[in-house]
User: Fold these one by one.
Assistant:
Number 1:
Amino acid sequence: MQQSLPNRDVLDRALRTSWIVAVALAAALAPARPWDAAAILAGQLIAFLHFIFLRKIVKLFTEKRGAGALEVADRSGFAALPFLITAKVLVVYGGMFALLASRRFGYAPLCVGFALPFLTLFLKSIMLAFGAGPASLMRRAKGGIGSVGRAALLVAMLAAISSSAPGRAVAQEHAAGTHAAAEHAKESGAAELPNWLVILHDFNPGNPVISWLEKNQVIVFAWIAGLLFLFVSWLAMRNPKMVPGPFQNAVEWMVESMESVAGDLLGEKHIQRHFPIIGALFFYILTINMLGIIPGMKSATSSLDLTLALALITFLYVQFWGIRNLGILGYIDHLAGQPRDVTGWIMLPVMLPVHVLGELAKPVSLSCRLFGNIFGEDTLIVVFVGATALLLKAGLSLLAVPPMAGITALFMMLQTLTSIVQALIFSLLATVYLYMMLPHEEHGHEESHAEAQATH
Amino acid sequence: MLFPAALGIGLPLGIGFAAIGSGIGIGLLGKGAMEAMGRQPEILPKLQVAMIIGFGFAEALTIYAFVTMFFLQGRIG
């Protein structure tokens, strides 16, 4: 595979740089504070292992898709996949929590160690996007620049998604400390239906693990949805056939229809490149939203934390592609409203802030829209369930249950609709934002326009 | 008038007004899309996508009001 080579290259170089920086930092710290130096090295090692495992897993996935998609015999790779994922969770997250739990290591140097490889990879990707650095210039001359940035970005995004959640939780725990429970109770002013974590917490009030999970339930449910999503897609494509069975057919239909909807907007050429993130956003959000309908579960998108994270990922992706496609000067030109004549230059002091603010408003509106809709639906159902409970308490069970159950069922149907529509809106808006940043061919557009006029 | 009291009255009212605006916008969008679909049913899938995106942009205005409410909610006291 031609693409995996430059990918490994950029990742390897980023990791090498981060090792050099980490060792230099540790060496500088070692005489004064040996434990901090060890903590930086340990954090760096954990993050390094994380990337190594991630690369293996991603490679297994992509090679399956590319090479042996239609071969039944080649199953050895998938036996390795669950093993790899288990090993990654055990080694990386286990090691991370062990390090965080041990009192010997400081919190700040550990975080520095964790963050170093991510930071270097991020910087390398940005440098690639700007076309800086002699190596990337050489590769651009060879013409392979597209795949490098894409692969590096994919790895970086996967890493960011998979690593941000636990890290954030720990940071939150440290910051909030003992007041967390009181603040949490004050913060969630609106009532929520109890999910299984809350119930578990109520029955085991003293258990630290359960109370930690209960406090970070958004992350738990986001992980549940993500694993469900992974499991279903693995189940569907584990044994792909030329003539698909009903299950594979259903999944393929969903993916293909989403691709055609986004492809209408983005165009044939770009959709091939950008469908992975658009489709992943759609199906991930859909899974999370739908999870809230199951009793005892909660849709994690009813918290602003998760939706903001998703919106920021989209925002960074869009800006990255904007800079890559337009170049840094073209990007600034785009933000300035493309001044070509005198009026354009006079309007420049007005247009530039407006465009910058518009760009910044995108993640805000994306995240708040998803959060507001899902949270609103959840609250609506809670209100009706609460009313039913009140009526039951008053001894009016015969009067309360049938109409209330009917109303709640009706609103749950509405919730299903909202879940699908909101997931669709999120991913389609991401597509539109991306479309604004990509160079469009005016030719094809005009031709189709002329064709349409000719037919009339 | 006390600042918290003014906020307590103004915030819900503001969201209501914003909702009126985007409600009108969404209504007009839906009306236009329905009429177009009635006239030309074959462009339905393309139109639906555009309509949903338009809904998203119209809805965003209410969401800005919603965000403002979140910023100021803590100061109601």
Note: The first helix of chain A runs from residue 4 to 29.
Number 2:
Amino acid sequence: MWLAGLGGGLLSLPFVWWFKVPARSRNTAPSTAGGPATYVDQDGWMLTPDDVAALAARRTAP
Amino acid sequence: MFLQAGQRPTSAGYDCIVIGSGPAGMTTALRLGEAGRRVLLIESDFGNGDLPFSVGYGHFAGTYWNAHSIRALGGTSNAWTGWTSPLRDVDFDHPTIGVSWPITLEDVVPFYRLGAPFLERHPSTADDHSQVVVPGWIYHPFSVHTPTRFGEKYRGVLTASRQIDVAAGFSIVSLDANAARSSLTMLHAFDHTTHTSFDMPVAPSQAVVAAAGGMGNAQLLLQPRGDGATPVGNESGLAGRFLMEHPHFYRAAECVMGSDLSRFTPPQRFGRSVHAILPETSVERERGLMGCSLNLYHQNQEHELIRTLARPGVPFFHYQIDVRSEMRPTEANHVFMTAERSRSGIYRPAARCVLSAEDLDNVDTTLRLLGESLVAQDRGRVRVNNNVLYREATGGGHIMGTTRMGRSRADSVVDRDCRVHGYDNFFVAGSSVFTTGGFANPTFTIVALAVRLADEIARRG
């Protein structure tokens, strides 16, 4: 119980959260109640799922 | 006029004695001179040669503060970049910090307008030029006109003045008061030319204005007394407390935004300005945020997100974001005296100034709110530079809050008229009286409050 609580606390630290989520894009909870869910790419851009797809398509386009 | 070299000033015959010739002291003296009052303006004028202190703790360590404590005619205006902006109404009554000044923006606006010409700005610089950029966010420009060097700008006026005498090369190193601590009775001075001390008696009818800077004012009010009694002016015990800076974060973020900020540029009479946006006041209140100004600079238009987000009729622009933000005033951040004395005999101060997690998180949250606002409205995207935000904070050289304004000795050093609580003839000018710091470079507010103080002193006769 105590360890679980500690783990939850540690997850609020950015670097722990960073290592836990392996994907290129990471979901982050909105800062505002009812705000949009955004993704943060490895450069730190706050993006939408559509952005991620559009950027991927653009990068792989011939 | 300037007293001749070697001529020691006496206090007799003056309505007001102003200690320090920076924007606060110089403005006070000039305004009182305009009102026909006789003023003695005392300036140490030894550059940075006899640094007032050498110790710093916290985020602004080492000799950081020395660079912003300039002992010369014109004071810190000699190092001013020219950036400034008035405080906002929310800065005077700050629900997030839980503090309100004993005055409101409405009380100060007339003095911003009167003070603007001292800074070679148009009076309308005091007006609210805010415009909505996207819902929840306003354009709030910074004035970045050429900086006024008070020493250069007003030397001629002072030389020709029959009302103002300037004593350069002299420092006030400590103060004496009557037994009731209701009136200053003596200024203990030091002559930097002959390296000798002398006294200047003060009559109850004479006003004394401490305008020695955010550090210097606290230093003066914290000078230990030989008899072990409370230093004169620190009866509240709060002199030196609530030290604030403006945390600066260069390249803290960037954004691609479907708004051309050039469209929001204020009228030409405003002078040169920098694009800046901030959350609407209602958002600040709702979210419990402190002041945070995002300064935006056009970048190249090659960013791939511009091409990704672009749609017919809506051009997108790439901006770099620098941040100037507010710091919560706390008693723990303070100026205090060391055991070391300078040649003049004045005890040297040290400073502890630590940015809290809240100060940093405030900026982080503000930037992420912008990111979410732009996503929600499909108006752009934001990238936050975590390293800059949490590892590269610096300051603006703005030393505020160390003789804060309030309602009584229980919460402050000076009252709404910048008078030290309990005294009839002792006043403080400068950013040391700020109760909260806002996000804006303080020169405009320093000058506005100095005009207001001068008018108050002139009114008392």
Note: The CA atoms of residues 283 and 422 of chain B lie 39 Å apart.
